[in-house]
């Protein structure tokens, strides 16, 4: 009998990235692992580092046992909605502008220091 599943976007899943509210995405499935964080043999920081993105590679690289995979099903809450874009064009431009605002200070500082050093050097002559 088919089951009805909830669908969540990666944006939805990324909103749950704290120790008090933790979701991960593995193999296109979304898991609420909040209650499992303290019991995870690798520590909660391993899981928390995998939130907000597809953690399939991390999960597979860890070499989880069959029983660990079966235990994961207890925390299954829905499937990843692949029709929702992960990054919209608007969010890309917003992030690019934020990065540009952060990076302007270095070249401006270098030019400012060069100007000051130039004035000091010319004054001594």
TrEMBL record:
It holds the Pfam family Cyt-b5. InterPro entries: Cyt_B5-like_heme/steroid-bd, Cyt_B5-like_heme/steroid_sf, Cyt_B5_heme-BS, Cytochrome_b5. GO terms for cellular component: membrane. Residues 5-81 form the Cytochrome b5 heme-binding domain. Its main location: membrane. GO terms for molecular function: heme binding; metal ion binding. Keywords: Heme, Iron, Membrane, Metal-binding, Transmembrane, Transmembrane helix. The chain crosses the membrane at residues 104-122. It is found in: Membrane. It comes from the Eukaryota. Belongs to the cytochrome b5 family. This is Cytochrome b5. It comes from Arachis duranensis (Wild peanut).
């Amino acid at each position: 009998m088919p089951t009805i599943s909830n669908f969540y976007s990666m944006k939805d899943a990324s909103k749950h990235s704290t120790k008090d509210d933790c979701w991960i995405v593995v193999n296109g499935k979304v898991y609420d692992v909040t209650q499992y964080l303290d019991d995870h043999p690798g520590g909660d920081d391993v899981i928390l580092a995998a939130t907000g993105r597809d953690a399939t590679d991390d999960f597979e690289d860890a070499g989880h046992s069959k029983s660990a995979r079966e235990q994961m099903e207890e925390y299954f809450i829905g499937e990843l909605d692949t029709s929702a874009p992960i990054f919209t064009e608007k969010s890309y431009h917003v992030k690019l502008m934020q990065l540009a605002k952060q990076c302007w200070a270095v070249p401006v500082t270098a030019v400012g220091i060069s100007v000051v050093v130039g004035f000091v050097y010319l004054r001594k002559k």
